[in-house]
Amino acid sequence: MIPESFEYHAPQTLAEASRLIAQFGQEGKILAGGHSLLPLMKLRLASPRHLVDIGRVAELKYIREDADKIQIGALTTHYQIESSELLKQKCPLLPETAREIGDVQVRNKGTLGGSLAHADPAADWPAAILALGGEVEARSESGSRWIPAQEFFVEMLTTTLQADEILTAIRVPALPAHAGEAYVKFAQPASGFAIVGAAARVVLDDAGAVAEVGVGITGVAAKPYRAAAVEGVLRGHSPTAKRIAEAAAHAAEGVEVNADLYASAEYRTHLAAVYTRRALEKAVERAGGK
Amino acid sequence: MRIRIKLNGSWREDDVEPRLLLVYYLREVAGLTGTHIGCETTTCGACTILLNGEAVKSCTVLAVQADGAEITTIEGLASDGKLHPLQQGFWEEHGLQCGFCTPGMIMAACQLLGRNPHPTREEIRQGLEGNICRCTGYQHIVKAVEFAAQKISPQSTVES
Ligand SMILES: Cc1cc2nc3c(=O)[nH]c(=O)nc-3n(C[C@H](O)[C@H](O)[C@H](O)COP(=O)(O)OP(=O)(O)OC[C@H]3O[C@@H](n4cnc5c(N)ncnc54)[C@H](O)[C@@H]3O)c2cc1C
Ligand code: FES
Ligand code: FES
At A134, which CATH number? Predict the structure, then answer.
């Protein structure tokens, strides 16, 4: 399993990387952790002429707190997120999601930006970033823009990133008071990818009712999505077990549900409701609700 | 392309094709065949090595990505003719049968003990989740890692 030949480029700075990406256009590919791209290249499902390895661009590796937001550089690995003390306190959904990805070796190499850019419909990060209402920064030689997560995913393996854009950062809100987050996943037993993955973020008001809620779902449809119908049933109400279950029943509403060897559409729809309920229950409990 | 790698403690330089996978570099260019190729699809963990101290599957890394890096393979663990505590553990506790998975298991275990010197049995299993063994049933592998943990920094073991 040897990839086709390519030319390798190892820029040290973001500016240099952007220039190379712009220069090669469709013939070039960005290499981050390589744990989605290299397997494809080994199978010759991808055969870029030019590989631009951004692994040495130090300015893309960081986790920092910025007022009430957390910003993470695109090249931050799953393991760095899993083990970050700052994130465990300020955005626990991210380490909890990271732990669910692949195995230790995969988490040492794979990056947050690479996973989002790859947009595998069964990947874990998209659910979390959607639930948090996060944004993704894309930069090219002509400037930078922030894209809300909900607009970022277009379809299977496709995002709104342009060919000359590099995903540089992810921004999410820090955990406020009376808030809880959770990610739960029903994994495909061989690959570990999500058959269904549900992430939830709940913020309660002083009376204990749901002030804000975000639910992100992966594995169920051709692209990860925010479960607006679930959120609608909860927002403004006391998150009782009954209301959570009612809300979660809408988990696959409005999407075309995947069917494959592992799970029929009907089974996946059922799992989506069950896992959404569990994620919400955990998030509410962690928020200090009942 | 010319690459420089600090392999098991000494720097070397080689000319490689960009598409050369790190595991082939180790086995065929550097001649270190201790690192095995099992699945070649990032699944089995037989090719696990330490890249700048982190366990990675070398079948899914390009040799050129490792330019400038430090690599430790199974050959780099023993020193002065003395087995590394993990190697001793696998020996003493029968942590292998055919031995095909062993170099990768040991390298993954090496990182595990680096990050968590006194893992519980459950934590050992989690730390080795990326490594598959067709023979042992894992029980003795877990014991081998416990043996090594105790040897490296003795303390009363925590049972999970
Ligand atoms: C055995 C195995 C098990 C796995 N299990 C899981 C799992 O359970 N859950 C899960 O979510 N994932 C899983 N993965 C995927 C893993 O998380 C990948 O690391 C991740 O999807 C891609 O990140 P990367 O940094 O390796 O990206 P790469 O493979 O380097 O790149 C992936 C794609 O994104 C593009 N890209 C990368 N970075 C950028 C950027 N900054 N800007 C623009 N484009 C970019 C590349 O050009 C490429 O098209 C698994 C992978 C393996 C090999
Ligand atoms: S040979 Fe690399 S993981 Fe199996
Ligand atoms: S000892 Fe044979 S595969 Fe593990």
Answer: 3.30.465.10
Q: Give the residue among A94, A2, A9, A112 at the shortest CA–CA distance from A51.
A: A9
- Which tens digit of pLDDT belongs to each residue from A208-249? 999 999 999 999 999 999 999 999 999 999 999 999 999 999
Rounded Cα–Cα distance for residues B86 and B106 (Å): 7
Which domain-ending residue is among A112, A142, A173?
A: A173
Backbone angles phi, psi at A108, to 5 degrees: -70, -30
Q: What is the rounded CA–CA span in Å between residue B84 and residue B88?
A: 6
Helix (H) or strand (E) holding A66: strand A63-66
Confidence of residue B154 (pLDDT cuts 50, 70, 90): confident
Ligand nearest to the CA of B137: 3
CA-to-CA separations, A32 to A36, A83, A117, in angstroms, rounded: 9, 20, 10
pTM reported for the whole predicted model: 0.96
Q: How many structural domains are present in chain A?
A: 3
Q: Is the CB of B147 under 6 A from ligand 3?
A: no
Q: What is the CA radius of gyration of chain A?
A: 19
Helix A265-286 and helix A241-248, axial crossing angle in degrees, nearest 10: 150
Calculate how far, in angstroms, residue B119's C-alpha sits from the geometric centre of ligand 3.
22
Inter-chain residue contact B1 with A108, CB threshold 8 Å: no
